[in-house]
Write a structure and sequence with these properties.
The protein is mainly alpha-helical. Helix content is 64%, strand content 3%. It is built from 15 helices and 3 strands. The protein has a 3-stranded antiparallel sheet. The radius of gyration is 27 Å and the shape is elongated. The protein starts with 6 loop residues before the first helix and ends with a helix.
């Protein structure tokens, strides 16, 4: 097989094979762990590897020799219409264990499938009907048509925005239904979305630079864009492979609704519970109903010290009170003016403060006291303590 090794082709070859390797490793990991998110990340890394292939093979001499030239012409290496939906599906599968590719959401893949059929039609017509370069008589690869590159970039930007929207709704939901929200907001999700954003900014930066330096848009000049793209791809692949995220709370959400309602599936046989993250409240601030539930919630948490459970959820509290989680959520939002996460953390902070005032910090570590009171990490404890008191734990002790 033809491959002319050189500075430009060799560096991209390394990135290409690293991408393919991590795509395979992620696929194997997905099979072993049964984690669907790894399938989507594997596919994303694979598509990114294919994206740089035309430039790598072009510098390796493929555009100048047959049959390699035809392979590059009629093989759609750059699947721009697939990359956006795949990153969106990856985001959903990371956050939502109930996410599956269904007939309802598979329409996101339709533009990519249509582009594949378009290239297939060009190959059939040129190879079997015209028997010459009819559609390719200008000698230009269709993957680099202006309309395709710009439309593909536009769709990826749209899916990036939708992924951010999905994550923000997820954040709101977690603060409403669990008492350990900080630990399930997952730094990795923000990290890979930022990395993907840089990917999207690269072609825009190239267009801007080429205005002042036209040579930047040449075949050799554009090589630097693909090198930077491959570095970001490699970073996402490596960090994503080591990512330990496992989500436990399934839900259903619409990113296109102005007031999204979230369905929290308690168990496979239980009814879905509507949790409104926009703080829909009872009709009146002085509603007798809300006062009744406030009292019940306060008494239960104080008597059984439920806040000491670091994995306490809204549904746990609802089961104890023999009611619907949606009712408890509204009662806490309306009655206490807090989300569930902050509500429970306030009880934990009060318990910590009581133990500090009793002098227990002299015979136990601050973190040990925090863990005994229901916190599950130092960062969450420090953040919640400062939010509640305006002081760090050490500053609070100094003022005793």
């Amino acid at each position: 097989m033809l491959f002319q090794f050189g500075f430009y082709s060799s560096l991209l070859l390394i990135s290409f094979f690293q991408g393919i390797l991590y795509s395979v490793l992620l696929f194997i990991k997905a099979i072993k762990t049964e984690n669907n998110s790894n399938y989507w990340l594997s596919l994303f890394v694979f598509l990114c590897s294919l994206y740089i292939a035309p430039w790598m093979l072009g510098f390796a001499g493929w555009y100048d020799n047959q049959p390699y030239r035809d392979i590059l012409f009629y093989t759609p290496f750059q699947q721009l219409f697939f990359i956006g939906p795949i990153i969106y599906f990856y985001t959903q599968s990371l956050l939502n264990p109930s996410f599956r590719l269904t007939r309802k959401n598979s329409w996101h893949l339709a533009p990519g499938i249509l582009y594949l059929l378009y290239i297939f039609f060009l190959w059939i017509y040129d190879h079997y009907i015209a028997k010459e370069y009819y559609f390719y008589k200008d000698g230009m690869d269709k993957d680099f048509d202006f309309w395709y590159q710009k439309t593909g970039l536009f769709t990826m930007i749209i899916y990036f925005i939708v992924s951010i929207r999905y994550y923000n709704l997820y954040r709101k939901l977690m603060y409403q239904v669990v008492s350990y929200a900080d630990s399930v907001l997952f730094k990795w999700i923000r990290t890979y979305l930022y990395a993907f954003l840089i990917m999207l900014m690269l072609p825009l930066a190239l267009d801007g630079i080429s205005i002042f330096f036209p040579e930047a848009n040449s075949y050799t000049g554009t090589w630097w864009f693909f090198l930077l793209f491959s570095i970001i791809m490699y970073y996402i692949a490596v960090i994503g492979y080591s990512n330990p995220i496992v989500t436990k709370i399934p839900f259903d959400i619409s990113v296109f609704s102005n007031h999204p309602a979230l369905l929290l599936q308690v168990s496979p046989v239980a009814e879905e519970i509507v949790i409104d993250i926009e703080h829909v409240t009872f009709a009146s601030q002085t509603s007798p109903e809300i006062e009744i539930w406030k009292k019940k919630i306060e008494n239960l948490i104080a008597e059984e010290k439920l806040y000491q459970n670091p994995e306490l959820t809204l549904t746990d509290l609802a089961k104890k009170l023999k009611t619907n989680a949606a009712v408890i959520s509204k009662a806490i939002n309306q009655g206490f003016g807090l989300n569930f996460n902050d509500f429970v953390n306030n009880y934990r902070i009060e318990a910590v403060k009581n133990r500090f005032e009793a002098g227990e910090y002299k015979k136990s570590t601050l973190l040990g006291i925090a863990f005994d009171c229901g916190f599950n990490s130092k960062a969450t404890f420090n953040r919640a303590f400062r939010k509640n008191t305006g002081l760090s734990p050490k500053e609070f002790i100094e003022k005793l």
